[in-house]
User: Which sequence fits this backbone?
């Protein structure tokens, strides 16, 4: 599985998200994690960037709920209870990674 985190410079949610993903991934060798700095509207459109941070699993945004537009902005995620945050909940990330939350 290729996991890509797209972000803008100075995104306050990038560090906490990276920490959560590294913990969840652990020593798994079937997941590759990369981060990509998005610096222009054109790049945002080309990459399918819907705000910082955007998570792509094998090139697909599992959190996309149309009609979201691309652009250089922050992104908000809703957890299973509807609470909004700057990154997905640990349980949601685990579900996307095909794992049981712990």
Assistant:
């Amino acid at each position: 599985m290729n996991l890509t985190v797209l972000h803008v410079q100075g995104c306050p949610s990038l560090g906490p998200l990276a920490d959560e993903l590294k913990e969840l991934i652990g020593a798994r060798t079937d997941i590759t994690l990369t981060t990509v700095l998005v610096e222009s509207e054109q790049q945002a459109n080309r990459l399918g960037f819907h705000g910082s941070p955007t998570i792509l699993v094998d090139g697909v945004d599992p959190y996309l709920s149309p009609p979201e537009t691309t652009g250089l902005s922050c992104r908000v995620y809703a957890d299973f209870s509807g609470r909004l945050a700057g990154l997905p909940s640990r349980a949601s990330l685990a579900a996307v990674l095909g794992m049981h939350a712990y």
